Amino acid sequence: MSGQALIDPARLLDTLRAEGELLAVCAAGADLGSAVPAWPRRTLGEAVRAAAHGYRLALSWLRTGAPPLVTPAEEEPAEPLPDQLRSGLRELAEELAAHDPYAPCPTWWPADASYGFWRRRIAHESTLHRVDAQSAAGEELLEIAPEFAVDGVDEALLLWLGYRLGRLGITGPQRGTVGLRTGGHAWLVHTGPEGTVAERVSATEAAGADGLVTGEPMSVYLWLWGRVPDRTVTLAGSRDATAQLWALLRLATTAG
């Protein structure tokens, strides 16, 4: 199954730029030592630093065709964090804009070896860091466009749960299925000791799973990424199955 995004690549690049700038604005006007509610051991400053580092890593990968070998401490610029973020964002966005999003490009996901992969991945990464920063600063979260949030659900399930988890050699102890429905789209996730498989399916197929997760696109998106509590979505059927899916995603997105 294709790993390409569910929305136009031009929107992904626009979102990348907009979310990166929102993050820079938040970083410039808030206490960088504030804790991120979803990650109590992470501060707002660390969230901004992670985003800036992500921009440099993606740009290096695009220019060299291989994963960078440097660590954040070895190549972090001396300029203030908001300036680091903006300069890295500008360079990365310019590099991505210079290439057809469907043109082949080195990535770390075989299902999408195109420049569009990076537009999508870094747009979602920027959005999540922005959410963390606004939460740490005590600001009201800005809305995430439903179409973009739906694409984020798709990426979380197919890339992180369906691919990254297997690359890490992590499996779930219990066999089960979880369906997810939001924004007119549906997915089915199979978990168990043999591995995890995620796929796009019909709403009817999703409804037949052991557990079912539904809700508004932004809520389902942020729930999958551990940024909002269970009460923000509707969980039906087996709570063991939905809890295992959520726990596996935490491992997929933080391990390695």
Summarize the structure in words.
- The longest helix has 22 residues, at 115-136.
- This protein is α+β, with helices and mostly antiparallel strands and 256 residues long.
- The model has no long low-confidence stretch (mean pLDDT 92).
- It is built from nine helices and seven strands.
- A hairpin with a 2-residue loop joins β3 (176-182) and β4.
- The strands form two sheets. It has a five-stranded mixed beta sheet. Strands 1-2 form a two-stranded antiparallel sheet.
Order of helices and strands: HEEHHHHHEEEHEHEH
Uncertain residue ranges: none
Instruction: State the secondary-structure class.
Output: alpha+beta
Q: What number is the mean pLDDT?
A: 92
Count every helix, treating DSSP H or I runs of 4 or more residues as helices.
9
Please indicate the percent range of residues in DSSP E strands (runs of 2 or more): 5-15%
Kindly summarize this structure in a few lines.
This protein is α+β, with helices and mostly antiparallel strands. It has helices at 9-28, 44-64, 72-75, 81-97, 115-136, 146-167, 203-207, 217-224, 239-254, and strands at 35-36, 39-43, 176-182, 185-191, 197-201, 211-214, 234-237.
